[in-house]
C-alpha cells in the first residue's frame, strides 16, 4: 500500500476521526487515568509535529505525533498518538510512518525517540521491539503507572 507521510494539522476531519478511534481503542484496554492521550489542542502546540500517512487517493491511514526535539532544543523527542486505521493494518503503514518520523527526527538533530504504550497493546509491543526499540524504565508522567511500558531508540547521528 503506497503511502506518503506529511506533517499536517490535527484539526481536520480524517485526522480527528483517527484520534477518536485511537481514544476508543485505548479506553477499551485501560482505565481513564492510565490513558495519556494528547487532544487536538495539545497536538497544535509549538514543539509538536503531527505526521499523517495517506494512501494514493489521499485518504488518511495513520497518524503519530512527535513532541519535543529540535524545536525545543532537546535531542530527544516523545512519540505520541501512533495509530493506524483498522482497515489499513497489516499493509506496512505503521512501519512506513515510523520510518518517516525517525528519518525526519534524525535530520532535525533528534538523537533519541522515547514512547509509552501499555502492556495489553500486544501488537504495539511487538511492533516497537521489531523496529529496534528497547524497553526502558518508566519516565516522566508514566513513573509508577501499572499500565505503562516505555521504550526508546537511539537514532543515527549525522553522516560523517
Automatic annotation (TrEMBL):
Q: Which UniProt keywords apply?
A: Acyltransferase, Transferase
Q: Which GO terms describe its molecular function?
A: acyltransferase activity, transferring groups other than amino-acyl groups
Record SUPFAM superfamilies: Acyl-CoA N-acyltransferases (Nat) (SSF55729)
Q: Which domain of life is it from?
A: Bacteria
Decide whether keyword Protease is in the record: no
Is Acyltransferase among this UniProt entry's keywords? yes
* Domain (N-acetyltransferase): residue spans on this chain: 5-156
Q: Which InterPro entries match?
A: Acyl_CoA_acyltransferase (IPR016181), Bact_Acetyltransf (IPR050832), GNAT_dom (IPR000182)
What this protein is called in its record is N-acetyltransferase
Amino acid at each position: 500500500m503506497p503511502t506518503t507521510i506529511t506533517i499536517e494539522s490535527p484539526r481536520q476531519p480524517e485526522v480527528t476521526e483517527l484520534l477518536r478511534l485511537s481514544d476508543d481503542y485505548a479506553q477499551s484496554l485501560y482505565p481513564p487515568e492510565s490513558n495519556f492521550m494528547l487532544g487536538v489542542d495539545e497536538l497544535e502546540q509549538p514543539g509538536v509535529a503531527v505526521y499523517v500517512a495517506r494512501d494514493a487517493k489521499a485518504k488518511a491511514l495513520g497518524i503519530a505525533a512527535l513532541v519535543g526535539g529540535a524545536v525545543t532544543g532537546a535531542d530527544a523527542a516523545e512519540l505520541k498518538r501512533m495509530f493506524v486505521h483498522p482497515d489499513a493494518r497489516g499493509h506496512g503503514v505503521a512501519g512506513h510512518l515510523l520510518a518517516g518520523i525517525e528519518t525526519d527526527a534524525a535530520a532535525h538533530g533528534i538523537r533519541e525517540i522515547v514512547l509509552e504504550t501499555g502492556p495489553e497493546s500486544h501488537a504495539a509491543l511487538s511492533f516497537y521491539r521489531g523496529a529496534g526499540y528497547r524497553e526502558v524504565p518508566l519516565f516522566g508522567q508514566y513513573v509508577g503507572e501499572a499500565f505503562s511500558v516505555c521504550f526508546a531508540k537511539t537514532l543515527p547521528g549525522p553522516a560523517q
